[in-house]
Design brief:
Elements: H1 2-14, H2 23-29, H3 32-42, H4 44-53, H5 62-83, H6 89-113, H7 118-146, H8 153-171, H9 177-187, H10 197-224, H11 234-253, H12 258-264, H13 267-293, H14 307-343, H15 346-363, H16 365-384
Helix pairs in contact: 1-4, 2-6, 3-6, 3-7, 5-6, 5-10, 6-7, 6-10, 7-8, 7-9, 7-11, 8-10, 9-12, 10-13
């Protein structure tokens, strides 16, 4: 019970499925710098809570580990399916965070269920968290800068190029911090003996394809329908530039990432990082040609908060049904009482009996007084006995 409550409680902060619904609602409502901090750093508080309080490495909790792996994989793909239908760039990035946190949840599941993977899983989770924090912060901060280029084509193209670099890093393209993070996570599977090995080796590259689709959707929305902002201050532009530099360099400098970084430069690893991104770009280009240029398919849109609308609909339906049922019960009880009263006239006589007795006592004043005295005397005598 304690492990389950810890997973759910910190999972709310981490944006884990199905308690993720606050995240795509909070991002569009927050200022862009606040969204960068929220998605880049603050949701890692839930991840830190898991690492601090769960008995990772102490015992093999296979049931909970399997549950975390399933929830993480579902979040990784479900968030992509919902995110690609969004029209708000902040909402797209929010669902991207849910997807990326799902991959980190897979790492939590590996360490929780199979302690022999902990020496590789914990560094991989740390590398992934650092990579995602800087990459997602760069994407959020770049939105305001890109939206305030004031018609300067050169500046606009340079800003789009910087956003493209951050997007490729998040997708795990070769020579990026994302490739190092994904290689580190795959390494944890080397000591993982279980039925999930083959499935995870297949699903992790597919998740990279999904991330590429999300980033393509984000770039399309932010460049096609930019929002109006004032020219950002120098501090905002410098912060964005610094975040992009950190996205590109900081993971490569982490001591825990040295082995994974060297492995990403091998030819086999380069191909493993390249083909999911290339496949995602190919799918995105095909969809763009069919839906945007030729306008063959209508655009699908899922409301922000997705499951929250389902829960709200079911709750309203429950209230409506309960209200209708309550009114039916009230009408039935009223009708039954009325029928009993109409069909049994003796009830009316019973109800009139106290009034009749009181009227009799009122009319016969002397007799009534004697009657009351006798009753009082009998009561006093019974107390003496």
């Amino acid at each position: 019970m304690v492990v389950g409550l810890l997973l759910v409680g910190f999972g709310i902060k981490a944006g884990a499925l199905p308690v993720h619904v606050w995240l795509p609602l909070a991002h569009p409502a927050a200022p862009t710098p606040a969204s960068a901090v929220l998605s880049g750093a603050m949701i890692k508080a839930g991840l830190l809570g898991w690492l601090r309080f769960l008995p990772i490495g102490l015992s093999a909790m296979t049931y909970w580990g399997t549950l975390c792996i399933i929830a993480g994989l579902l979040a990784a793909f479900y968030a992509v399916a919902v995110g690609v239908t969004q029209r708000n760039p902040k909402t797209i990035l929010a669902y991207s965070s849910i997807s990326q946190m799902g991959l980190m949840t897979v790492g939590i599941g590996l360490g929780l269920g199979w302690p022999q993977t902990v020496p590789l899983v914990l560094p991989a989770i740390g590398i992934y968290a650092v990579h995602h924090g800087f990459a997602k912060g760069a994407l959020f901060l770049g939105m305001d800068v890109l939206s305030a280029d004031d018609g300067d084509r050169l500046a606009h193209r340079l800003d789009v190029g910087r956003l493209l670099l951050a997007s490729l890093a998040l997708a795990g393209a070769p020579f990026t911090s994302g490739a190092v993070a994904k290689i580190a996570l795959k390494w944890a599977l080397n000591d993982f003996q279980g039925p999930w090995v083959a499935g995870l080796n297949l699903l992790l590259p597919l998740a990279a394809i999904g991330t590429t689709l999300l980033m393509a959707r984000f770039l399309f929305v932010i460049t096609r329908h930019p929002s109006a902002h004032d020219r950002p201050r120098v501090g905002m532009w410098l912060s964005w530039t610094l975040t992009i530099l950190l996205t590109a360099a900081v993971v490569w400098l982490l001591p825990a990432a040295q082995k994974a970084a060297s492995k990403t430069l091998q030819l086999a690893s380069l191909w493993q990082a390249l083909w999911p991104v290339a496949a995602g770009m190919l799918i995105s280009g095909t969809i763009w040609l069919r839906t945007v240029r030729k306008k063959r398919l209508p655009a699908l849109s899922i409301p922000q908060g997705d499951l929250l609308y389902v829960f709200s609909y079911l709750y309203r339906l429950f209230l409506d049904l309960s209200s209708k049922r309550s009114r039916q019960i009230q009408r039935s009880m009223y009708s039954a009482l009325k029928n009993i009263q109409n069909n049994r006239p003796e009830l009316q006589a019973i109800r009139k009996l106290p009034f009749w007795f009181e009227n009799c006592l009122t009319d016969w004043q002397i007799a009534s007084l004697i009657f009351v005295i006798l009753i009082a005397c009998l009561f006093a005598w019974s107390l003496r006995l």
